[in-house]
From TrEMBL:
This is 3-isopropylmalate dehydrogenase. Its cofactor is Mg(2+); Mn(2+). It comes from Neotabrizicola shimadae. One of its GO terms (biological process) is L-leucine biosynthetic process. Pathway: Amino-acid biosynthesis; L-leucine biosynthesis; L-leucine from 3-methyl-2-oxobutanoate: step 3/4. Substrate binds at R97, R107, R135, D225. The keyword Manganese applies. GO terms for molecular function: 3-isopropylmalate dehydrogenase activity; magnesium ion binding; NAD binding. It is an enzyme of class 1 (oxidoreductase). The lineage of its organism: Bacteria, Pseudomonadati, Pseudomonadota, Alphaproteobacteria, Rhodobacterales. The gene is leuB. Its main location: cytoplasm.
Amino acid sequence: MANPSLLILAGDGIGPEVMAEVKKIIGWFGTRRGVTFDVSEDLVGGCAYDAHGTPLTDATMAKAQEVDAVLLGAVGGPKYDSLDFSVKPERGLLRLRKEMDLYANLRPAQCFDALADFSSLKKDVVAGLDIMIVRELTSGVYFGEPRGIFTEGNERVGINTQRYTESEIARVSRSAFELARKRNNKVCSMEKANVMESGVLWRQVVQEVHDREYPDVELSHMYADAGAMQLTRWPKQFDVIVTDNLFGDLLSDLAAMLTGSLGMLPSASLGAPMANGRPKALYEPVHGSAPDIAGQGKANPIACILSFAMALRYSFDMGEDATRVEKAVEKVLADGLRTADLMGPEGGSPVSTSAMGDAIIAALDASL
Ligand code: NAD
Ligand code: IPM
Ligand code: MN
């Protein structure tokens, strides 16, 4: 059987720094577990713009469609802020999501015991937290038409359109219900049905899919603003949260801080099954290119490493090895290793990005 194939798009800023640690782990699987991945690498984001004048070439897009999974670091940075919207680094990522039709973005927020003290919330609010945000990723206000900046009378007007079809809502809600069945069997759907028609439809369709196909799953609905409040008040009331593209973006950054740092949160973006039965998939940390710390060896590589663990679980049927990587992360945190983002205001001695990666490799060795 052919080796599993991976396309690495490390991107900009801290993207290549955190991805270097994932590459060590991919190498570890080759030498220590006899699992060799066919790895190719390419450009996305600002670095692709610098090389080719576009944040994603057609050739890279075609490669992404062919591989078993894409691993992405991060894109963007101040250098590209004034670029035309059509060639901004972020457009490269949005094109990948849209053309691969990666409609279900899984963003798990788990609080490791060793970090429960570090959250900005009280320890008992976050200790043992394990929630899964399912963010719709290919539609909504990110992609709706009309959009643009127009002139109306003597002033400019900026327009974006929130648009959801019934089938787009139904398919992402199925992803959420399926996940809930393997977890604690609860889904909370979040929208703004009190002010947006797309929210009214969202609520109706999620309820219909539930009643028809998943009556065994406990379903509740919440307005997204109240959801944000509840996520900080008592996040452990949630199991799976399903929400749209924009609310999911906001709520997942919020959920990241429940776990201690944005540098901890991984994600999987999944589409429909390919011919081999596995979903089209892209894995990436939730965080961005962190221009404020790029190039300093300070970035926390754990979000990117846990994203690779999600690839093992969702693309390669290697659930036990995914758990092995997660346990290795848990072990180094329990041993007290911290990158700078996991230091409190009183400071301490943070380890570098590569020292964190090396410690995780050592914990993986110890797991054999
Ligand atoms: P960001 O996530 O890059 O950074 C926010 C804050 O979190 C910064 O203080 C940063 O230092 C810190 N941080 C983030 N990841 C970290 C890590 N792994 N370790 C330690 N600290 C970390 O968000 P931003 O500053 O709003 O955006 C910067 C750029 O990244 C923008 O161009 C934005 O569009 C882009 N972005 C890209 C992605 C992506 O590629 N998926 C996601 C979010 C933002
Ligand atoms: C994310 C990011 C992206 C988004 C940007 C970089 C396009 O914030 O993945 O959370 O808004 O979806
Ligand atoms: Mn975001």
